[in-house]
Design brief:
The protein has 359 residues and is mainly beta. It folds into two domains: 3-32 and 112-358, Phospholipase A1 (Outer membrane phospholipase (ompla), Chain C), CATH 2.40.230.10; 49-107, no CATH class. It is built from five helices and 17 strands. The chain has helices at residues 3-9, 22-29, 38-42, 91-97, 222-228; strands at residues 58-59, 64-69, 72-77, 84-85, 109-112, 131-137, 143-159, 168-182, 188-203, 207-220, 238-251, 254-267, 273-281, 292-302, 310-320, 326-337, 347-358. Strands 6-7-8-9-10-11-12-13-14-15-16-17 form a twelve-stranded antiparallel β-barrel. It has a two-stranded antiparallel ribbon with strand order 1-4. The two termini are 35 Å apart.
């Protein structure tokens, strides 16, 4: 971006790239978490398992139910002299018989607009598809509001149908507009990024993968341009990207993920390669009105800034309904190159709070 625009929007800085964060790598490799003692901390908020929940729907003798052991599913016939009750069965059998879980090839079929998502947006990622607002002050104290207006949905799936943890293969669409408003200038629009993508995803109970395409472009806000007279100095930042990702649940409440993207078309200072990785910590399943704690860390490395990238840390409280949709609120910290790509080569430090809706 031209120097005049830099002087308008950001204070001068000599920082060229982010410091190395060894503790972030420890969180990914060693299992360290900002929530110490996960089992003890999260146990009071963990929803009861099927085996702990009384289910009283009767089964007649001769009923067939799906049983599962180490990922292998089969049909079993119940032979009883009197009607059986589901709470007497093993947990996996009871869950499937009650309709809570449909696992294995017997529950797989082609579905249009299925329930749930196999691949979820990471909690602390930049340019992630959701509805959210983060109020923060930058390094010189100017207040901003970063908004995300978007979402992610499954268009087609060959697999199971569950709002919480579906399995199979899935075609998704995702997109978002990401405007930044200057609260110190009557909520003027400073910049806005747009993203749209089509990923193909797959997964089971512990592993998920994705591969697809997305387009991203950055635009200077008209009100900032009019206020400072810098419209001619805008950049045409744009990327058309092929990307792939992998996520893994070592524990039900822990999600590790990594992604890589290569842009076959770039403009406005963008360069091809990017990488991101992180950890999401939140107990799965419906939370009830009390909610549960969450924590998330994301690292994003970009070739155009010498792989300096950014670090994001979030923590707070989360509520999740039976549909899998979630609402969370908490604190937000961001350090690194700007999350608004119209200013991609500028350093930012954001300290604030946010409200996030996950769809």
């Amino acid at each position: 971006m031209p120097q005049a625009a830099k002087d308008v929007f950001f204070a001068p800085t000599t920082m060229k790239r982010n410091p190395f964060y060894p503790w972030l790598l420890l969180s990914l490799v060693g299992g360290w978490s900002p929530v110490a003692g996960q089992d003890a901390a999260l146990a009071p908020y963990r929803p009861p398992s099927v085996s702990e929940t009384p289910l009283v729907a009767p089964l007649a003798t001769g009923s067939q139910v799906l049983t599962s052991s180490l990922g292998q599913s089969s049909l079993s016939t119940i032979h009883v002299s009197t009607p059986a009750c589901i709470e007497c069965m093993p947990a996996t059998t009871a869950a499937q018989a009650s309709g809570l879980v449909t696992a294995g090839p017997y529950g797989w079929r082609s579905r249009i607009l299925p329930e749930g998502l196999i691949w979820h947006s990471d909690l602390a990622g930049v340019h992630v598809q959701r509805i959210s607002g983060i109020v923060f002050a930058d390094h010189d104290g100017t207040p901003f509001l970063d908004v995300v207006l978007g979402g992610r949905m499954a268009v087609w799936r060959y697999g199971t149908d569950s709002p919480v943890a579906p399995q199979g293969y899935e075609l998704q669409i995702e997109g978002a507009a990401l405007p930044r408003l200057n609260l110190d200038q009557f909520w003027d629009l400073e910049a806005v990024d747009f993203r749209f993508g089509v990923p193909l995803v797959g997964g089971n109970d512990r592993w998920q993968w994705k591969a697809g395409y997305y387009h991203l472009s950055a635009h200077l806000g008209d009100e900032l341009a009019a206020r400072e007279g810098i419209l001619a100095e805008r950049i045409n930042y744009s990327r058309d990207v092929l990307h792939a990702g992998l996520s893994f649940y070592p524990l039900p409440a822990w999600r590790w993920y990594t992604e890589a993207g290569w842009a076959f078309y770039t403009d406005g200072g963008a360069e091809p390669w990017e990488f991101q990785f992180g950890v999401d910590i939140a107990t799965p399943g419906p939370t009830g009105p009390a909610g549960i704690p969450f924590a998330a860390v994301n690292g994003h490395l970009r070739e155009e800034v010498d792989f300096g990238g950014s670090l994001t840390v979030q923590a707070g409280w989360l509520w999740r309904g039976n549909s899998g949709r979630a609402l969370r609120t908490g604190v937000h910290y961001y350090n690194g190159k700007s999350s608004q790509y119209q200013f991609f080569d500028f350093f930012e430090e954001q300290i604030g709070a946010g409200l996030w809706g996950e769809f």
